[in-house]
Amino acid sequence: MFRRTPSPLNRSSWRRTAPPAALLALVLAATACSPVESNDEQTGGDQTSSTQDVFGDAADAAQVKPGGTLTVALSADPDKLDPTLSRSLYSRYVFHTMCEKLYDLGPDAKIVPQLATALPTVAADGLSLTIPLREGVKFADGGTLDSAAVKGSIERGLTLAGSGRKSELGPISGVETPDPKTVVIKLSKPFAPLTAALADRAGMVLSPAAVSKLGANFSTAPTCVGPFKFSSRVAQNSIKVVKDPLYYDAAKVHLDAIEYRIITDSSIRSANLRSGDAQIADSLSTQDAPELQKDDSMSVLQSQSLGYQGLTINVGNAEGIGNPVKQLDTPIAKDPRVRQALEASIDRESLVKTIFNGLNTVACSPISPKSEFTSEAAQACPAHDPAKAKELLGQAGVTTPYKVEMITSNNPDSLRLAQALQAMVKEGGFELVIKPVEYASLLDQQDRGDFELLQLGWSGRVDPDANIFNFVGTGGSQNVAGYNSPDVDKLLTDARQAKDQAERIKLYGDVVTKLQQDDPLIYMYRQRNLTGVSKKVLGVQTYPDGVIRTAFAGFAK
Amino acid sequence: MRRYLLGRLWQSAVTLLLATIVVFLGVRALPGDPALALAGEDRDPESLRAIREQYGLDDSLLVQFWQFVSHAVRGDLGTSIRTGESVTGMLKSALPVTLELSFLAILIAGVIGIGAGVVAAVQRGRPAEWAANALALLGLSVPNFWLGLMAILYLSVAMGLFPASGFVPFFSDPVANLHHLVLPAFILGTGLAAVIMRQTRSSMLDALSADYIRTAEAKGLKPSAVIGRHALRNSLIVVVTIVGLQLGALISGAVVTERIFALPGFGKLTVDSVFQRDYPVIQAVVLVTATAYIVINLLVDLLYSVIDPRIRVRGEA
């Protein structure tokens, strides 16, 4: 999409010149439109500053006026507004304003208490967690938050048909409520990732009255504790929440309402931001962000995601996920040297620079450098070396160019990436054939094992376990590579059960080293969460979990 | 007449059933199932199974089809797999938006198309005709999505004249409603305006050379009366028919326009549901569209025989 717009005309003179001007503009645009701007203009100058995290600041009450409706342009429609059943990132944007959790994430990706008053006290055997609760907290329907409500919500996550929380909650054997402000979670095995799960949807507390009234239809009128409460939803189009006067910290809430408007096209999203129809737009394209950064009336919040984008190679997913793996009989599936060659022929640095305007960052492992679990081993990066790639292919005995077919999502960003990769790996002796597929079909094909190579990513979670185990652990629900390695499985299981963080860090480092030898998944880059915010609004923040925090924002005086 | 009506009703019912079967099977032939699309990143075998079970996706096709049809005849179109909302409710909120958008588009296209057509016919061979023809060609060849993007960039972003997205229901604020809809309706109407312009022009040219026009002129009528009352009126019959035929194109154009301007209409609902493999919604949308087409066709056929006595229906002749 082209991004240059003419300087705004003077409104009063506009009436006379409008029709011819509009027509002229259309004709001019037809001839001047260029799909991709040259790179030197965008990457020059503020290259270093453009990759620094900008989380945004909390609003200063003195500078914010009360009231107003904030419009947020969302890039995708959230699914069910039920914390137990929801599965999309976008529902978390909406939940954050109306469903608080036991724990939250700070801007530094550290877990902090929200509806709890302190981090959980873990018993010496690691089998029970004691969580103290905030007192005097009311649900949007007037009910009081207590340990029974927390117990009910956790149990709902474990038992409700179709629950998306069951695996996140791990081996919980029971929830006890010694008194109204204390919750004790009992585990059958130690499970370190639990606290992080309670800082997400699994830790949201649902109003027991609303749950008993609505049951599985909770999503039609979600009721929790939050600065805002659900007002209305127009399917595929918008969701509105309004200020909740019962919220315990209501004095900090400035806005009257927030409307989430779903606009899937990224250039239209940024156009809405510039026209003032929306004050916030999420998931800006790396093509649109530089232009908005130059705009004085806008700021672009950015944070590195905890996830990754990479290439998954089908090594053993012959019969679809859920079935036993079976070694595939192709050189790239059988011989790790071929996969190492593919990795060596990818120039990650130039990829992020040329395709993503230097806004995304290089990734060689599933562990973000921003994570508490990072280490030298976790950040080690195999060098770009096409000569070595060719040599490895020679050792593996394959003839070059080695032809490999890659399926990828059919959105513009993915296609640009695929084409760049195609040109890049050619030098290393690969002939990449691109097959663009629509997203739902891509998921289907990867689960059935109907691919040789696929490009897709993972949005990332705070705990590294959630970013690794399911993807490369034997029998993992998202192990579409069909990879199995007893060594990796052991390291991952040990890390899951380790009580000491230093021990977990070491184990995850070892996992990365092993993964880089076997290469079932070639990690390429980490996306940045790019959020455009109008300067008319203060107090909008994004954290590394990718969720845009708007609850305590307000319009500038 | 009664026999004809019964016959047509029977035909319509069969057509509707066939359309339902085709859509039902077509949707299921798409790669990727709703459970996968819904689970997205967070999928694990257990929840996929649970979703499939909850929505009966693991039942045989015959059972699923029976469930759908038996509920649909009772007016229950099911619940959306993605949002858990009632499909009937979703349709109720989406339909008026698209109807209003299409109505406005026809209105705008009519005014522009007929106006330009009359000018082109009357000013035959002069620059005005040339300009009108060029405009029509532009209207036909420029795709809606591009025009929509340009309109947003120039008219909304740069000049701040129209909102770039959003919708306000007519009855809560008519002015804001029109302000939101004028631009999308104009974009949607461009193709139709071009068609109307061409049709009006050629019909007008025919009419202007007809004997009754010469008679009217000879009677000493003012040129405006000759053109307006005699030539244009007679030309409009064909134009109205063409507009009717173009309704389908208008609805498919609305899909694109609604997506660009984030209007909560029928078209946007359809496309988004297809991407999310939301079977109940897709089925309902197609069912409603098919019913609308069938009913309109039926009405048009019946109206023909009422309006023009020369068109006799079979069985009565």
UniProtKB/TrEMBL annotation, chain A:
User: Which GO BP annotation is one of this protein's?
Assistant: peptide transport
**Database matches in Pfam families:** SBP_bac_5 (PF00496)
* Family recorded in the similarity comment: Belongs to the bacterial solute-binding protein 5 family.
Q: Where is the Solute-binding protein family domain?
A: 110-476
SUPFAM superfamilies associated with the record: Periplasmic binding protein-like II
Q: Name one GO molecular function term.
A: peptide transmembrane transporter activity
Task: Give any Gene Ontology cellular component.
Answer: ATP-binding cassette (ABC) transporter complex
Q: Where in the cell is it found?
A: Cell membrane
Q: Which InterPro entries match?
A: Peptide/Ni-bd (IPR030678), SBP_5 (IPR039424), SBP_5_CS (IPR023765), SBP_5_dom (IPR000914)
Q: How does it sit in the membrane?
A: Lipid-anchor
Q: In the record, which residues are listed under signal peptide?
A: 1-32
From the Swiss-Prot or TrEMBL record, give the protein name. Answer: Peptide/nickel transport system substrate-binding protein
Keywords carried by this UniProt record: Signal
Highest taxon, organism lineage: Bacteria
Automatic annotation (TrEMBL), chain B:
GO CC, one annotated term: plasma membrane
- Give UniProt keywords alphabetically: Cell membrane, Membrane, Transmembrane, Transmembrane helix, Transport
Q: What is this protein called?
A: Peptide/nickel transport system permease protein
Listed Pfam families: BPD_transp_1, BPD_transp_1_N
The molecular function GO annotations come to: dipeptide transmembrane transporter activity
Its membrane topology, per UniProt? Multi-pass membrane protein
Query: ABC transmembrane type-1 domain: which residues?
Result: 95-304
Subcellular localization is given as: Cell membrane
Per the record, the similarity remark reads: Belongs to the binding-protein-dependent transport system permease family.
Annotated transmembrane regions? 101-122, 134-157, 177-197, 236-261, 281-304
- Indicate whether Iron appears among the record's keywords: no
